[in-house]
Amino acid sequence: MPEANRKSPPAESSAGTAIDGAPYDVAVIGGGVIGCAVARELARYDLRIILLEKGADVAEGVSKGNSGVIHAGFNVPPGSLKARLNVEGLGLIYGLAASLGVPHRMTGKLVVALTESDRGRLEELLAQGGRNGVPGLEIVDRAAIERLAPGVNGERALLSSRTGIISPYEFTIALAENAWQNGARIALEAPVTAVGFGPEGFLLTTPRGCVTARRVVNSAGLFADEVAALAGIDVPRVFPFRGEYLIADKEAGVTLGMPVYPVPPLDDSYLGVHITPTMEGNILLGPGSEAVADKEDSATTRSVAERLKAEAFELVPGLRRFPFIHAYSGLRPKLTDPRGGPLLADFLIEESGRRPGWINLLGIESPGLTAAPAIARRIAAMLGEREDWKEKAGFVSGRAAPPRFSRLDDAERAKRTAADPRWGEMICRCEHVTRAEVEAALGNPFGVRTLDGIKRRTHCGMGRCQGGFCGPRLVEILRREGVPPDRIVKRGAGSELFLGRIKP
């Protein structure tokens, strides 16, 4: 049977798992890359696990606005928890991504000094990386820069050969699906609004019902401090810092095969523009860094866009000739108070002394994506050290990657189209996404029916026209799937595409 015709396991509701009254061993709050990695790691054991996510899909918060860089760990303070988990995560993430079928590539990275006066800073980063145990670091000259990344300006550079790139939202989705494969429950549109305490553990109130759990992992990202407060736990405040990005057209992808960063300043107040190729073939400029008051302020600004371009063109002049097709921003959960305080606050991962069994994760910003597998192992060890947990028989460690028309050779495309005509019907011309892929994405185990959910599973709408061609076709497919027009949303409640009828 063609893969697109195979039925995915039925979703338990339009928002993932139906919440029941039975107690859980562990509840994970937050469906970003950290929460999903923790849920997957805990699913190794004979435990009842539930992940509660406030959005209409996983990867809806901090994780979706991520550069997608697998960091080596040389630009984090030696001796910090960040440094230890970054380097440990580096040793895990490539193998994990491969087993889960997530697109990734070890590209290497250059931190470039435009003048010889910055060589001292490169030497400092090299020495810091050595203290952190980072493999594959060396300082290279102009000739090596030209060989490794033709068209990049620079006199010297720190080469990090173990750095790579990954699709952060595909990684998060894959972690969640693999957790689900192994029995974990995923509840979407289920923000925790109150926390109580009973004889069987914590009582977590959500709009979809109450969850009882013996243990809780609070990985709510930007809102982790507010969730902790619901449980009466005093933790440091989380401050939102907005990072804006620009996306260059895929034509620009030929200019750069690895991330290129400028030498960071000594105070690390702003690391400068990062120029990063993506797994889709585009080039990302950014992020900027700006403290904002609102934890959901994802605005983009002309001033930051112009600054990102000016800095990028100094490093890679050839980018000037390519158009930019989209701007977006992500928000980072920093423990750095913008009014003053340490600029590189460490990760905070600790069990509450007041509420034993409740673990808070705060300030998990970059390199959180790389560190995610290591953080997950750390959480499992913290939770399991007082318990006789047994590993589950038949734990499924891998996941087959969904087939992508754009990544198939001509023979495979012809074979699939002959067996199923939906493989020959193009829904997204820019990204070469077929109806078969869209309908398969709608069969996801969590019942996600948002346009962003389809986009992150297929790349529909990520190309040059930004959904101008595929948008109406996705609406038509959703209507055929039984979604009423007034319930078709971009990312969840409040993002409806249609607000009323203009014809009878």
Task: List the keywords.
single chain; 504 residues; alpha+beta; FAD/NAD(P)-binding domain; D-Amino Acid Oxidase, Chain A, domain 2; Arc Repressor Mutant, subunit A; 3 domains; eight-stranded mixed sheet; five-stranded antiparallel sheet; 12 helices; 22 strands; globular; disordered N terminus
In short:
The protein is of the alpha+beta class and 504 residues long.
Description:
Strand 21 and strand 22 (433-434) form a beta hairpin. The chain is globular, with a radius of gyration of 23 Å. The longest helix has 19 residues, at 81-99. Strands 1, 2, 9, 10, 11, 12, 19 and 20 form an eight-stranded mixed beta sheet that branches. The chain is 28% helix and 20% strand. The chain has three domains: 13-103 and 167-238 and 335-388, 3-Layer(bba) Sandwich (FAD/NAD(P)-binding domain), CATH 3.50.50.60; 104-166 and 241-330, D-Amino Acid Oxidase, subunit A, domain 2 (D-Amino Acid Oxidase, Chain A, domain 2, 2-Layer Sandwich); 405-487, Arc Repressor Mutant, subunit A, CATH 1.10.10. By secondary structure, it is of the alpha+beta class. The chain has helices at residues 33-42, 81-99, 119-132, 142-148, 168-181, 224-230, 302-315, 368-384, 410-419, 435-442, 451-458, 470-480, and strands at 24-29, 49-52, 69-70, 104-106, 109-113, 137-141, 156-160, 164-166, 185-187, 194-198, 201-206, 209-218, 239-248, 260-262, 275-277, 283-285, 290-291, 324-334, 348-351, 358-362, 426-428, 433-434.
